[in-house]
Amino acid sequence: MAQSRREALQAAAQWYARLCSEEAGPADEQALQQWLDSDPMHQWAWQRVDQLQARLGRVPGHLALNTLERAEQHFSVSRRSVLKGLALVLGTGTLGVAAYRHTTVEQWLADHHTATGEIKQLTLADGTTLILNTASAVDIHFSANERLVILRGGEIMITTASDSNENPRPFIVQTPQGRVRALGTRFSVRMLEAETQVAVFEHSVEVTTHSGAQNQCPAGHQLTFTADTASPLTSLAPTDDAWTNQMLVVQNMPLDAFLAELGRYRTGVLRCAPSVANFRITGAFRVDDTDQALHALGKSFPVSVNFRTRYWVTVDEEK
User: Fold this and answer.
1) Are 166 and 63 members of one domain?
2) pTM for this structure?
3) I want to staple 152 with a disulfide (CB 3.0 to 4.6 A). Which of 2, 65, 137, 289 is the partner?
């Protein structure tokens, strides 16, 4: 029995990796369903993957087996302890492929993190409010010289508090591309593929790239920066901070871009057929109920929303 359970868990982990692969297609959908229907043990293993995703967020399928095996033996063990075990196996490498290729061990072991779909608010030691968006991670380092937040992945919103120290310390957010220094402000920082996006809602921030170039970003504006340069300022929409209230508000956004944003808040694959990608969408949607948002699409556009599995959704032309 133990061997058959292990084999089922291994297969479930492999299926999950295939599910999240960019190469996955309709044949994989059908094969997965056939595999699930062929044996109750397969359904049990898939449920274990489901439970693990709820506990850890989006873990790559080929790593899920290692984590599942530990969870089978010590299911009450803390998330951090499980992930330390993964770190011993993986060293300082990355945690996966495809959608997970930018997720690092440091991100999973960060001081504070959120799972996919989770939004969490913290109050730091100085009174600063920090909100972590979906699948985000930060380390906090307060010293005698500075208040430092290291963004490991995802997106955060910060409302800085005045420093009570005799010599006020600067408040800084660090990313791989550089540093963002708050000038008494409310602002967000988001890590993208190879750049950082900063949006300022009150007062201003100072951006210093890794190479030393400096830029000011005032309230009502945003910019992106790489390790070398920063983009020109662009204006913010009044609702660009709606995610802090569990909302995604869009105005005339292409459907594929909308689904990419919505997909940040749900585990698995959310695909958009090229034939409907350029449909324009305007509206407000709750990110804590992405299924409801997807069902609304079918009522507003000539599209079909196909739930192959809980983790596999395709938006296509209405047949």
Assistant:
1) no
2) 0.72
3) 137
